[in-house]
Design brief:
It is a single chain. This protein is α+β, with helices and mostly antiparallel strands. It contains five helices and three strands. The chain has a single domain, classed as Winged helix-like DNA-binding domain superfamily/Winged helix DNA-binding domain (Arc Repressor Mutant, subunit A, Orthogonal Bundle). Helix content is about 55%, strand content about 15%. Strands 1-3-2 form a three-stranded antiparallel sheet. Strand 2 and strand 3 form a beta hairpin. Helix 1 crosses helix 5. About 20% of the residues are buried. The model has no long low-confidence stretch (mean pLDDT about 90).
């Protein structure tokens, strides 16, 4: 996700957030990763996530990087492992904010 500059307007930042989040969830494998994380308590190691998918390890890590870049997962290193944690607040606030803009006035 491209970081907005200090001179970026609030509307531009919101649009950048929407683009990052919706771009990340546009791919079925990334939606699947988010669902698996959610159903498994919100936190899994990279290996546990990769074991759930038929795609190669590089493909899985690429999807995880996209989700991390969009702010939908956070990563913590524990020794040699990387723990991925879903950021429910980021996902729900961004998508709910966009949907709210369609409410009748």
């Amino acid at each position: 996700m491209k970081k907005p500059s200090a001179s970026t307007s609030k509307a531009e930042r919101q649009l950048a957030d929407l683009e990052a989040v919706f771009g990340a969830v546009a791919h079925a494998s990334r939606r699947h990763i988010l669902l698996v994380l959610h159903m498994r308590g919100g936190e899994m190691t990279a290996g546990e996530i990769a074991d759930r998918f038929a795609c190669s390890w590089p493909t899985t890590t690429r999807h995880l990087r996209v989700l991390e870049s969009a702010g939908l997962v956070r990563v913590e290193k524990r020794g040699r492992e990387r723990i991925y944690r879903i950021d429910r607040e980021r996902l729900t606030s961004t998508t709910a904010g966009w949907l709210k803009s369609f409410e009748a006035r």
